[in-house]
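Bumping my old thread because nobody answered last time. Still need a sequence for this structure:
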């Protein structure tokens, strides 16, 4: 690991869509350009990508009409939503 770089530890409950469903984790997608926040349907993600699919470090396309921004996935943890 390069000097000064900190390894990020991700709890098992956030590592895959299957784990998040099993643990009852709520996920949101937030666009930093238009400030739209949407609820993520983990069951739909699981049906399309499989239960081992991970949202960590991924960005999605904003769903608001005429917005070309990208969304950051946020998972509920410690009483607030935090980036994955």
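Sorry it took so long. Here it is:
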């Amino acid at each position: 690991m390069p000097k000064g770089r900190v390894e990020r530890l991700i709890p098992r409950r956030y590592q895959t869509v299957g784990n998040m469903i099993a643990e009852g984790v709520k996920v949101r997608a937030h666009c930093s350009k238009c400030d739209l926040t949407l609820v993520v349907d983990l069951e739909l993600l699981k049906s399309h990508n499989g239960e081992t699919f991970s949202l960590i470090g991924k960005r999605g396309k904003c769903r608001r009409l005429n917005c070309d921004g990208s969304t950051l996935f946020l998972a509920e943890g410690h009483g607030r939503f935090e980036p994955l």
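The longest strand covers residues 70-77. Let me know if any region looks off to you.
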